[in-house]
Design brief:
5 strands; 9 helices; 311 residues; three-stranded antiparallel β-sheet; Rhopdopsin 7-helix transmembrane proteins; mainly alpha
């Protein structure tokens, strides 16, 4: 845990453990709305794939895992807020709550990283299917490189979260052990936030060249455009989240107060990403005879051939 210097401690007001100033219920409301919408979208997706179309793909497996981690993130964030005083200023957090608050933060970071990565990989699986018989080799290489990038930053950040302190439990132990050694959490987490924003932008932008080659009815094209626009909303949410990472872990020592909007942005980012992944499949559940994610015709780079791949 990062301890403020003496001059900062002196500047803080007297702790108020009885009736402290707290944030609103925005975190609870946001989690309730977005997680419910996410679960509904994923449910429609699997109904469409398994019940209506009678098949499923690798991307469905990844989005199922992402949903589990996204729900886990929601649960631990609510626990942190309700049981460990995440909704108040750091100086108003009772000392006996600090260890639990740090353990919850530790778990939440890992859940977020795994949810974000599996969601992005699920989308890449969809992109792979779109072009697997199209002959567009440069796009496949772009997908390979993006996949390697996503896996690398996921493994790197999970490793740094777990082993950022030696021993590991030094991350949440309070009072801190003077013999423990910890990396700079602010630098690591801000860097991870920036890399995650780049990932969101990449995954949202990658399919644009392919969409330009698609031959589809207007309704399908509108659906694809909505899917892509949600990807950019996810990117904006990631930028907001990264800003509050900086505020809570670098710019100030009032970590709990400035982390509150951070976790709201994280909820929006993860849950919208899962919804945007499941949007085309979920919509098809209401129209079994016409799947928005089916019949996407990709024009081959060879002008004498044209191949169709069912997605």
């Amino acid at each position: 845990m990062r301890l403020p210097p003496l001059d900062v401690l002196i500047s803080w007001p007297r702790p108020n453990y009885v009736d402290p100033v707290t944030r609103s219920t925005a975190l609870l409301v946001t989690n309730g709305i977005f997680v419910s919408g996410m679960v509904l979208a994923v449910g429609l997706r699997f109904y469409s794939r398994i019940k209506v179309k009678n098949w499923y793909g690798v991307d469905d497996g990844f989005i199922a895992v992402a949903t589990v981690f996204a729900v886990a993130l929601c649960v631990v964030v609510i626990i942190g807020n309700e049981m460990f005083c995440w909704d108040r200023h750091t100086w108003d957090v009772p000392w006996n709550k600090i260890k639990g608050a740090m353990i919850i933060a530790f778990v939440a970071k890992i859940a977020f990283t795994l949810a974000a990565t599996t969601t992005r990989i699920s989308l890449l699986c969809l992109y792979y299917r779109l072009v697997q018989d199209s002959g567009i080799r440069w796009f496949r290489w772009a997908l390979h490189l993006t996949l390697a990038y996503l896996v690398a930053i996921c493994v790197m950040f999970v490793f740094l979260v777990i082993f950022g302190c030696v021993p590991v439990e030094a991350y949440w132990n309070f009072p801190p052990n003077n013999s423990a050694r910890c990396l700079n959490e602010g630098t690591i987490t801000v860097t991870a936030g920036v890399l995650n924003c780049v990932s969101d932008f990449l995954v949202a932008t990658l399919p644009i060249p392919i969409v330009m080659r698609l031959r589809m009815p207007l309704r399908q094209r509108v659906g694809v455009c909505i899917l892509l626009s949600l990807g950019y909303v996810v990117t904006v949410a990631g930028i907001v989240r990264t800003y509050f990472i900086y505020k809570s872990l670098v710019a100030t020592y009032d970590e709990t107060w400035y982390s509150y909007p951070l976790w709201i942005a994280a909820t929006v980012e993860i849950d919208l990403a899962v919804v945007s992944d499941g949007f085309p499949k979920g919509c098809s559940a209401t129209s079994p005879d016409h799947d928005m994610s089916l019949d996407l015709r990709v024009c081959s780079s060879n002008p004498h051939t044209s191949q169709t791949e069912a997605v």
